[in-house]
Write a structure and sequence with these properties.
With about 350 residues, the chain is α+β, with helices and mostly antiparallel strands. It has helices at about 1-10, 45-70, 85-90, 105-110, 130-145, 195-200, 260-270, 320-330, 340-345, 350-355, and strands at about 15-20, 35, 75, 80-85, 100, 120-125, 125-130, 150, 155-160, 170-175, 180-185, 190, 205-215, 225, 230-235, 240-245, 280-290, 300, 305-310. The chain has ten helices and 19 strands. The strands form five sheets. The chain has an eight-stranded mixed beta sheet. The two termini are about 40 Å apart. Bound molecules: flavin-adenine dinucleotide.
């Protein structure tokens, strides 16, 4: 989120500084990169947000590729969601937006799919992007080429407000070399992912750990993403298959892989595509999704005047990067273009949680 917003602001000629504790811990490098509002079965305003972002993504990627000179690995590969029974398919929240598949259709789309899957939905409009190897690096380079300043290895420790007008006044950070610095600051965007509550305690953002692995399959072994319950397989252009993911709500910020988590992924591969069980594993990694109680992001004005929010994107932050960058850079520049943008900002305001906590009056 930080890179995507910095890039859009820099494109509008603004001076931006990205303060990052550790690029390597960012979930942006962990994700599978699915662009899947339909396959994920999103609903309501979150589906609208996802669809808006999916529609913006090709133009957004073209801008990043232009500014960086690097490719991002966007592939509109389509995503297949398999079901054991046809009535599960009918009940899927986005069933009406997908193409329904029989067992024969499933076999055509995903040769080798395990026999227990008898029905499916094909979402041709969903896709993927190679976030881990391409998009994040391209975004960094695009930012640098547009003059964005980077403070890598710097941890923001406090955000201070002016006691008179309550506006954001100063950021205190600790550099990689251990120096504590105070930076005057009137405008900032909080993009600290799963760690956001540590800086702004009133934000209900918590980590949901995810473990991943990759397999080297034969090139073109899989043309579609397979999105099974609990496990998905995302085929990159060169035959690398990204497999995800555990969803561990009780793990907190516990680092590292676990035997249980990795065994769960292995069982998921076997359950979906048995032949992939013999493809060699390449890499294993983990990270933290920034989740909120309703699993929707926190966007727009924050609890301190001058502090904007772009956090809590949970399992769809790669998908939602394009719309988040657009909405936040419009809002920061007071350039909200249409009623729909304002509605999205209102819907995903952090105030929806503050409102719920207000005591009932009678
Ligand atoms: C296993 C897994 C699979 C996923 N798969 C998908 C997918 O297929 N599709 C999809 O759309 N999304 C997916 N996601 C979700 C997506 O990765 C996240 O929603 C998204 O990356 C969140 O972006 P962010 O910028 O908010 O947080 P992050 O990418 O985590 O970045 C937060 C940054 O803030 C920095 N930071 C934190 N605190 C401080 C501080 N005090 N000072 C300075 N810096 C700080 C961190 O160092 C980090 O670099 C997945 C996530 C996981 C974990």
């Amino acid at each position: 989120m930080g890179l995507a917003i910095a890039h859009q602001l820099a494109r509008r000629g603004q001076a931006v500084r990205v303060i990052s504790r550790s690029r390597n811990e960012a979930a942006g490098f962990v994700a599978a990169g699915m662009l899947a509002p339909h396959a994920e079965g999103l609903s309501g305003q979150l589906l609208t947000l996802g669809q808006r972002s999916l529609a913006l993504t090709p133009k957004w990627v073209a801008q990043i590729e232009h500014d960086s000179g690097l490719t991002c690995g966007l592939r509109m590969s389509g995503i297949v969601v398999p079901f054991a029974k046809d009535d599960e398919r009918r009940r899927y929240p986005t069933a009406a937006l997908g193409q329904s598949l029989t067992r024969k259709g499933l076999e055509q789309e995903v040769p080798g799919l395990a026999p227990r899957w008898q029905a499916g939905l094909l979402f041709e409009q969903d896709g993927q992007i190679d976030n881990r190897r391409q998009l994040m690096r391209a975004l960094e380079k695009a930012c640098v080429s547009l003059g964005v300043q980077f403070l890598e290895g710097a941890e923001v420790q406090t955000l201070s407000r002016n006691s008179e007008n309550q506006e954001l006044q100063q950021i205190t950070l600790r550099t990689a070399e251990g120096e504590v610095q105070h930076h005057p600051c009137r405008k900032a965007v909080l993009c600290s992912g799963a760690w956001s509550q540590k800086l702004v305690p009133e934000l209900p953002v918590f980590p949901v750990k995810g473990q991943m692995l990759s397999l080297q399959g034969p090139r073109k072994a899989l043309k579609r993403v397979i999105f099974g319950p609990g496990t998905y397989l995302v085929p990159r252009e060169d035959g690398l298959i990204v497999v995800g993911a555990t969803s561990e709500r009780d793990a907190g910020f516990a680092p590292g892989l676990t035997p249980n988590g990795q065994a769960q992924l292995q069982a998921g591969i076997q359950d979906l595509l048995p032949k992939a069980g013999s493809w060699p594993p390449m890499e294993r990694w983990w990270g933290f999704r920034p989740c909120t109680p309703d699993e929707g992001p926190l966007l727009g004005a924050g609890p301190i005047k001058g502090l904007w929010l772009a956090c809590g994107h949970h399992r769809n932050g790669v998908l939602l990067a394009a719309i988040t960058a657009e909405l936040l850079s419009n809002a920061l520049n007071k350039e909200i273009h249409c009623e729909e943008e304002q509605t999205l900002l209102d819907t995903f305001s952090y105030m929806r949680f503050a409102r719920k906590e207000e005591p009932a009056t009678n």
